[in-house]
Specification:
Largest sheet: 6 strands, mixed
Number of strands: 14
Distance between the termini: 11 Å
Oligomer: single chain
Strand content: 25-35%
Order of helices and strands: EEEHHEHEEEEHEEEEHEE
Structural class: alpha/beta
């Protein structure tokens, strides 16, 4: 395994991610960096600051959020984000004080489903999709399809790291992007140069973390 280093946010040094270089396999791509977001998702102090930063975009642009849909163990961050979105501020002095926070459940086909008791938090609601990392945007696209199926409207996408700027016309509000990791590259599985060179895979990764091989 190659170098592991810490990358701090340019606007807040208390918000950081860990970067690991190597050959990684994700659900849809082979990638040359693993982005470690565990502290932002699970460390109280880091998560609070990250949520405050993410909320600024929605408050400044007057985007009403009713529900935060959390993908890949982002519920802690989502709860702090909902708290910030529900607070009065100079841009929105009288916001709606109810912001729901829900996790994701998948059916046998990998589609996000919402049980009957949660559907009221989706139907006719403004939904913010929260995710740790976005590479191609396919996971978020699938989440957007599910939200629309249940009658909700996606008004925002937030992430810790994103390699894309928008998905289905919705801006991605992110803490880190490709300007922070300029050499970050995702390759289709059939066109991975590391595989072509016979370089072994270091780890299998997804939104929950990574598992080393060998």
């Amino acid at each position: 395994m190659s170098n592991i280093y810490t990358l701090t946010n340019a606007r807040n040094e208390r918000v950081f991610i860990h970067i690991m270089t190597g050959h990684f396999v994700s659900a849809n791509n082979h990638i040359n960096y693993y982005i470690g977001t565990s502290d932002i998702k699970h460390n109280h102090n880091v998560s609070v600051d990250a949520a405050m930063m993410l909320s600024e975009y929605y408050n400044a642009n007057g985007i009403q959020v009713d529900t935060v849909l959390c993908l890949y163990e982002t519920q802690t961050l989502g709860a702090y984000l909902a708290h910030e979105l529900a607070r009065p501020n100079m841009f929105r002095p009288n916001p709606n004080q109810t912001v729901y926070v829900i996790g994701s459940e998948y059916d046998a086909n990998g589609k996000i489903i919402f049980r009957d008791n949660l559907q009221r938090m989706i139907k006719e609601k403004n939904i913010l999709i929260l995710i740790s990392c976005i590479t191609s945007g396919k996971t978020v696209e699938q989440a957007m399809e599910s939200v629309q199926y249940y009658g909700g409207k996606v008004v925002g996408i937030s992430s810790v790291f994103s390699a894309v700027e928008s998905i289905e016309g919705v801006h991605v509000n992110t803490l880190f992007d490709k300007t922070d990791i300029p050499h970050y590259t995702a390759y289709p599985m059939h066109a991975c140069p590391y595989c072509a060179q016979g370089m072994p895979v270091d780890a299998i990764s997804n939104g929950y973390g990574y598992s080393m091989l060998g």
